[in-house]
Design brief:
By secondary structure, the protein is an alpha/beta fold. It contains two helices and seven strands. The model has no long low-confidence stretch (mean pLDDT 88).
Length: 132
Amino acid sequence: MPPNSENAVRTDLEKRGFAAVSIKRQENGRAEVDAVKLHPLPVAGEEPIYVEVPVSLSVSLDKQGHVQSVKGDTPNEAAVADALRQLKTLRDNKQVAEPATAGGPLPPGVTHEIVRDTQGRRVLRRRRFSLM
């Protein structure tokens, strides 16, 4: 795939809510792509928390290399289960700043925070790393 066509695919997919786009293969007007997508995780007694979950996409391209359609944009069950386990582990280890404390300086040991995005969703974001 020519570099400018790769950039067009990345730009088109970013507009559709995908990030960290990696194009594995392109042929005959189709591209196989790995990316991440914000996906809602159900949390008992709370509104969902959105986390980045990996997805594998099959993308149909027009003659200019722009995205026409996307298939496979839903994460598989194993990826969602992994994300739920990671969220639980972060919370169990007190590594998540909840919305009431998010945005300010992080307490010791906290690596992530839950923030509201421009669409009003609660999103888990990494703020720093810990060597614990």
